[in-house]
Amino acid sequence: MSSAVCSVGSVINNARNLNREFTITARVVAPKRPTLPELSLKGIPHTDLHVREIVQRQLYTRHSDHNLCRKPEFNPEFLEDAYDRCRDICAEYAKTFYLGTRLMTEERQKAVWAIYVWCRRTDELVDGPNATHMSATVLDRWEERLEDLFNGRPFDMLDAALTDTVQKFPLDIKPFRDMIEGMRMDTKKSRYENYQELYLYCYYVAGTVALMTVPVMGISPESSSHASSIYNSALSLGIGNQLTNILRDVGEDALRGRVYLPQDELAQYGLCDDDVYSRRVTDNWREFMKGQINRARFYFNQAEEGASKLDKDSRWPVWSSLLLYRTILDAIEENDYDNLTKRAYVGRTKKLLMLPLSYTRSVSMPGFAFH
Length: 371
Prior knowledge:
Pathway: Carotenoid biosynthesis; phytoene biosynthesis; all-trans-phytoene from geranylgeranyl diphosphate: step 1/1
Distance between the termini: 38 Å
InterPro entries: Isoprenoid_synthase_dom_sf, Squ/phyt_synthse, Squalene/phytoene_synthase_CS, Trans_IPPS_bact-type, Trans_IPPS_HH
Number of helices: 17
Protein name: 15-cis-phytoene synthase
Family: Belongs to the phytoene/squalene synthase family.
Transmembrane segments: 198-219
């Protein structure tokens, strides 16, 4: 049995006794301004997304049951090459996160690399170089391929790495399916009427990653928190990361005819798509952006509650992601909220300086907050 499963197991026993009922929450923050309207306060209840069921399956599935009928025979050298390829892709496209993964145990490193690569390949179906050939059929076939992968029938080397990971950790297939649903949404929608719709999209394309990785990261045996609260924190980090991506890329997305901003909230500040396309940074735009940034920061604050309660070998990459994405929000502010003609850029030096800071946070006592 893997070390991550053992770590999770000890927490599960406590959680079963202390928390029979899982409650996964969706919370949204909005700035209060006396002269301007408030943002929407409503989110998507996680019960509607069946997140609770995913968490329960990943926590309460016995390891022997999890492995039942999932035992393909892989050549060890082939499997090692598969993980090496996943490692190389992660190192090339997610440099800061990759550095963090190097402090994990070897088994967890490999699992996170395999999950990252599958998520990246899924995203590239819509945003990659071959996205012009995207169709509903392509995504349907990709989902069928996912089913095969979970049933021990990988299509290629990279799939094989994830198939092996699925055997070692109690991963539920639904978050993977949900991410594919997010890609379907991207092919059908280029506008989001309100934050409820945008939250749903953020869950599909980023919150799902949190659900995939918590079983791999593991929960600290010393943590007194219920597992549900740690999943809540992980989901908050995923939502915060995606909101930050959206705010960073407003100008670039507009060039593709996409506006990932709540239409009703734009209207509250006297803005519309034409203001985005005209690339004019007005006072109303700045006020609107302040509210959106505050919302993203709210989720990062929520994420802190669980970041230091993961297994000690997994905390550093999580804190790295959290602090780095916060820095992107700072960069938007430093650009005077001009994310229409400028890209919020965090230089390599600043990224490297963030690593020792994130490491310090990762070894702090659980529950320590940094704002």
